[in-house]
Amino acid sequence: MFYTISAAAKKLNISAHTLRYYDKEGLLPFIERNEKGIRIFQEKDFEIMNMIECLKKTGMTIKNIKSFIDLCITGDSTIEQRLCFMQQRRQAVLAQIEQMQKTLHMLDYKCWYYETAQAAGTCAVHNHINQEEIKKSFHLDS
Known about the structure:
Strands 1-3-2 form a three-stranded antiparallel sheet. It has helices spanning 5-12, 16-24, 43-57, 62-74, 79-120, 131-137; strands at 2-3, 32-33, 39-42. It is mostly helical.
């Protein structure tokens, strides 16, 4: 089955403009074109386009994504490099998750803080609460 750029974009849940940009940046060298120069997307293309979107969501730059795509296109001789690449991205994502978990703890604390203050009608209510226990409860020392 073949897809137009609009249909491919819809299937990937991104804009056609984004796909054109990826193509311009060299991320889609595997995409074929018909005799009129129109991009033709095939089912087999979606796996790597999904990988591009995944890497992008990790905060990876287009330049680094292109490097990864180039390694994929090179073939089996780059398996070790690609594995290393993925392990590094995985570590980066784990660090992001850890940071986001700390952010969530702070937001949970602030929600509790203002809910408690709202119920009491004043933020002064917190002057009588053991702050160390609160920090421990919301993992704010982590």
